[in-house]
Amino acid sequence: KLSQRLEVVANNIPKGFRLADIGSDHAYLPCYAVKVGIIPFAVAGEVVEGPYHSAKRQVEIEGLQEQISVRKGNGLEVISSEEVDCISIAGMGGALITSILEDGKEKLETVKRLILQPNISAISIRNWLSQNGWVLIAEEILEEDNKIYEVLVAEKGNPLNKPEKELQMELLFGPFLLKQNSAVFKKKWSAELRNWQRILNQLEKAADTEETRSKKHELIEKIKMVEEVLEIEK
Ligand code: SAM
């Protein structure tokens, strides 16, 4: 059975789209999406030998060799231009996902949708999207096995003009997640808040250098934003 996390990713693939799942590991996501009839074709990309073999084996076990092409290579280099309509990258840090997109930019020209599931640092993905002609069209947050995951869905487009403060909030929290303000969202940011407060406390005790001062300033700004979102009275 597919994890809830990957099911959310799968549910955001438009029906009939050709998919590239980058960093596919066991290729569970493309196998599921083909089996339930969401997609007719997928590329499963893996850069590491072990996971590449796991993906190959899984596709053979499921008898999906005709529909899923398992390829070994770094990031988007495994796809040729115009081969897919949609790219999913799940289960990695936001910075790694961003670098895969950045390094494979020319392959994105004909891609219509990105579905990204960062384990940490969704902010770096939102930053990259907004600077590269992509806009978020949906976001989801979910908890599974005591971990909280975010799924970001983007299509090409230009961002609306918004006040700087609002932009900063949306980059950190996600425009859709901010509006939904769900229980899982509150749980995630309450934990982040406690973590940042703990770090700030330690910095208060550290030597007062230019570096600690700027770190403290940055943390205080982030803490203020979270307190505002969680409606914590000071
Ligand atoms: N996408 C699956 C999921 O969400 O369950 C697997 C996630 S697994 C934690 C991350 C996978 O990404 C690893 O198998 C790793 O080998 C692969 N990976 C990391 N960097 C990559 C890159 N630049 N190109 C292709 N695959 C990469």
From TrEMBL:
Keywords: Coiled coil, Methyltransferase, Transferase. One of its GO terms (biological process) is methylation. The keyword Coiled coil applies. One of its GO terms (molecular function) is tRNA (adenine(22)-N1)-methyltransferase activity. It comes from the Bacteria. The keyword Metal-binding does not apply. Residues 186-213 form a coiled coil. Gene3D superfamilies: 1.10.287.1890, Vaccinia Virus protein VP39. This is tRNA (Adenine-N(1))-methyltransferase. It comes from Cytobacillus depressus.
